[in-house]
Fold each of these.
Amino acid sequence: MRDTLSIQADVSLQKLNTFGIDAKARAFLAVRSVDDLRAVVADEALCAMPRLVLGGGSNLLLTRDFPGLVLHMCMTGKSVSDEDDAAIYVTAAAGENWHDFVRWTIGNGWGGLENLSLIPGTVGAAPVQNIGAYGAELREYFHSLQAFDFHTGDVRTFNREDCRFAYRDSVFRQAEPGRFAILSVTFALPRQWRPNLAWPELAATLPDATDPALTPKAVSDAIIAIRQRKLPDPAQIGNAGSFFKNPTVTAAVFEKLKAAWPTMPGYAQPDGNWRIAAGWLIEQCGWKGKNVGDAGVCETQALVLVNRGLASGAEIISLSQRIQEDVKARFGLWLEPEPVFV
């Protein structure tokens, strides 16, 4: 291994994943520039190792010690990169904290990302999952990103179409995971801001969307209050936020389910399908607040699985599988996990 790269051996990842799983990396590198990645590619031994690109570890479930090289993306920096009549273009490095970046844009008077406040993780990891919450998704304000290609050693620019964004998904999860390391992300924040109050709980706490007193900061503050009330802080109890995706079904299937369970919450999608609240499904199966050893289900939001102390990744997976089986048996729906299992 190259001394100039400050490669570390047998590094604990417990503080680098929000589940707080105690696992080790065989080799570890804090990446502070694209030159570090080029040096990895140039080193035959390092390049041949299994590779894990790590941001904030907030969409990750470690199931074992990682037998290869963990690349922790630590580059920082944010700035206005361009502007035109329609938008302000802001660029942030991969290692920037996502929530801090969102609040920075709001502090500068630029709206757009406020519905995504307080989502844990880093800017570089955000496009991988196409993060979303409270009626908004990252792709709505995404402009482009730069990523390092480990196959070619080049830096490549991806536009929105290149990223193939979908519900909690992107090309970075769909094809050749680990091929790219996102270096920076650029967002187009509209000069003519309009609040997104489509989420009922959000609309109930704020003035009408046409109220001129409504600001991006007010929306962000409301989102933060809702999240703090409903979701556990990863700094206090290990979790990765929403553990399951909300299942998407056809209108006919939703109508049938709704007839059987009238209180089932569903959200109409632009393509005519419906999305069903996975947390409600889990709660109806009696899992809310339950524990199996140190693996458990959050008391305030059944969609969140938690590590109550010393749970292993395997124990979290075992709990999730029991939940999947119960939801399938009762509703005929299979829940798909959001985190990446490693």
Note: DSSP finds eleven helices and 20 strands in the chain.
Amino acid sequence: MRIGDWLSPEEIVRYTSRSNWRAAGVVLSNWLIVAAAFAIPAIWMNPLTLLAAVAVLAGRQMGLAVLMHEAGHGTLFKAQALNQWIGRWLCAYPVLGNMDAYAASHREHHKLAGTREDPDLPNYQAYPVSRASFRRKIVRDLSGRTGARLVVGLFGRRSGDIMMRSSDQYPSTLPQGLFVNAILFGVLAACGVPLLYLLWVVAYLTLYTAIARIRQVAEHANVANLYDRDPRLNTRTTLANPVERLFVAPNHVNYHAEHHFMASVPCYRLAALHKALIEKGYYEGYPDAVVNGYGNLLKRVVPELAAVHT
């Protein structure tokens, strides 16, 4: 499959063009949502606002990880210096990510997707799974066990999570991550609400890992053919509603088939590319490449969930 079979040279230029202003707006909007998530319980402290804050913060932690992914591709900002600086300090380090190590691993994923050498296969090759198996995974996430294991791995440099991986070639960025988190704590302390930083920690250790799991299975689990190089067969796009975009699919991360179709497209142009490919018939004959909503997605990867509703 050639990109040129589906897009004209002018369209390729349009969809791959990068904008410093649009990228800055995306990064700023994510941090404004983080600020609002802290402000609401600071003003109205009750169990509901605290739970809502944790959920929103976890979604934005995933949002920052997605922007780290974009900057690692070099597609977020037009200026590569901005991709490097903002991608690290405002996107990767707040979630203890190592952008350089992640980008290197992720390039291998794109190179080898659809083969048995794909380094990300352990994240999704076992699907579909039983409802009991999936429940155990989610319970581990929501109880903090998955998050605690990943954090311990960061200190021991044995993390199995590709968004946090370090190696001799890509030294650990944990000190920078702790420094940025100390700044976040300091800002909250200066605002008179230092204990609200615990919401960030709780979100990171619990819901963030669950969202990361759902993102991984949405993209590649139980697809039409995990070992075919065609992204319409080995990758999936999940159409998300506004609530899903807030909590589990930030920054257009749900358009994953489009991302594998052309990885040089910035996240803020993926929705337009999806629309263009639909109009051109790119997905005709590939019904499993696009699923409507994360509820339907979960029924694909955990078939017993579909049986409950039939």
Note: The mean pLDDT is 94.
